[in-house]
Structure formats: C-alpha cells, structure tokens
Amino acid sequence: MRVVFKLFASLADHLPAERRGNLVEIDVAPGTTVGDLIVRYRVPEKSAHLVLINGHYIPPAARAGRALQDDDEVAIWPPIAGG
User: pLDDT tens digit string along 26-42?
Assistant: First the structure.
C-alpha cells in the first residue's frame, strides 16, 4: 500500500533525504499503524502532538491500533508554543 507521510515544523528533520519538502510517499505493509510510522521514523512520542489521518484527529490511545489504508495521508505536528 502507498501512503503519504507528512511531518511539520522541526519534525520534518526525521524524514529521509528523498523527501519532497515535508512529506514522503512510502510503501507500507497491510496492517501498518500510525504508531508503526512514528517508531519507524523515530519521531519522539511526546513530539507527535497532533496526528491526523485524512484530516481526522487520531488520539494517542488509538494510534497503535489504527491501521492505515491505501492512499491515506498521515500528518503529524509537534506541540506549538507561542506568545
């Protein structure tokens, strides 16, 4: 299956060199979860603050069990601070 994996802000540094901006298109095995991608790309769990699949929020407790589907788009943002 093919999915789009996007990492925003400082998390984009975890993507491989062949990325296009802040995203990569990757092949994953059936049954791969959002949690698997977080581990595979060494995204610190505490830094995966906002996780969306196709624009839908995935809470932390659901990430290990949410299997990806062909053509899913996974987007992850770190915590944001500002003033």
Answer: 999 999 999 999 999 99
